[in-house]
Design the sequence.
């Protein structure tokens, strides 16, 4: 079996749930330095890909041409909550590109801040494509199209020049041939790629390394700095990426994706890990991610305490009674 048990839930001391997955820890040379399960497990990258999808725009000097600030670069990489600050930044990006939200092709959904709290939208709330968690990425897509005189109506089409440029740069960033990338369509209607966990981790090790990267150095430096400086824009109130990057104190670049994938790179260590929980369970994913950080020795006591809620070790019922436990059941191995 290429997947191994990562997180177990017990109730009254008896096992109840078991979450399987895989972990790859990779350095900037592309070497797997630690693993659990198959480090080359093929998985869709989902929203962890956003920083790499921004590369054509960054490489074409788009931020300077449109006057995008670090806050706007952070939103390029975001899966945001649809809070007021996120909408304001997305609107600013569209304004600089000379477009309205109606040009966005990401679709419209209930703002993430409401979904996170499991609350119904207020009756007077009107939301549109800017509230989509991917609106920043799509605003960057549109800016690239304006910059290069490309059609706007079909910018999510896999054969559109923008998407072809993204595929090429993503492949370069993760050290693969573009033809090896297996494509699917993401929730926001843009192409997304499945790749081995080890390759995804390699891309984030390079992203976190910033100027030290010989190929995308300036772009990676601008993107990683924006993400670590403005993690509230990358995610939002109560979100995993905000908590992890705050705990990382500028050293960690973190991005979660839908259906159980998370990647985190360390600038100072020149390494990153990618993790996949095969059933997509978020609490299990977050608990496993904190455990990976701990086993790698990346946590001090203050960071360990800050991330303790994301381990969610105690299972508590509606009356506040402790009824079970969530615990890691894996040990990272050296290849």
Sequence:
């Amino acid at each position: 079996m290429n997947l191994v048990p990562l997180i177990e839930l017990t109730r009254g001391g008896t096992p109840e749930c078991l979450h399987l997955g895989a972990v790859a820890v990779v350095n900037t040379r592309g070497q797997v330095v630690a693993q659990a399960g198959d480090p080359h497990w093929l998985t869709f990258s989902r929203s962890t890909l956003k920083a790499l999808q921004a590369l054509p725009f960054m490489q074409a000097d788009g931020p300077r041409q449109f006057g995008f600030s670090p806050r706007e670069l952070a939103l390029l990489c975001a899966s945001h909550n649809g809070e007021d600050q996120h909408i304001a930044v997305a609107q600013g990006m569209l304004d600089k590109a000379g477009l309205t939200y109606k040009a966005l092709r990401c679709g419209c959904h209930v703002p993430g801040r409401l979904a996170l709290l499991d609350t119904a939208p207020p009756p007077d709330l009107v939301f549109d494509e800017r509230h989509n968690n991917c609106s920043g990425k799509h605003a960057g897509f549109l800016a690239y199209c304006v910059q290069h005189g490309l059609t706007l109506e079909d910018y999510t089409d896999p054969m559109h020049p923008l998407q072809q440029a993204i595929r090429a740069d993503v492949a370069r960033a993760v050290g693969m041939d573009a033809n090896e990338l297996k494509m699917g369509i993401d929730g926001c209607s843009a192409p997304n790629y499945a790749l081995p966990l080890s390759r995804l981790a390699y891309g984030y090790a390079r992203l976190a390394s910033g100027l030290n990267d010989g190929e995308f150095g300036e772009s990676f430096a601008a993107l990683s700095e924006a993400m670590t400086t403005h993690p509230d824009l990358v995610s939002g109130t109560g979100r995993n990426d905000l908590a992890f990057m705050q705990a990382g104190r500028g050293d960690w670049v973190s991005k979660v994706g839908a259906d159980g994938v998370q990647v985190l790179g360390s600038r100072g260590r020149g390494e990153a890990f990618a993790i996949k929980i095969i059933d997509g369970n978020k609490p299990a994913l977050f608990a496993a991610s904190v455990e990976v950080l701990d086993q790698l020795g990346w946590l001090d006591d203050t960071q360990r305490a800050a991330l303790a809620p994301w381990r969610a070790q105690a299972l508590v019922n509606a009356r506040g009674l402790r009824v079970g436990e969530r615990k890691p059941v894996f040990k990272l191995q050296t290849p």
Summary: The radius of gyration is 19 Å. The first helix runs from residue 50 to 53. The CA atoms of residues 171 and 178 lie 5 Å apart.
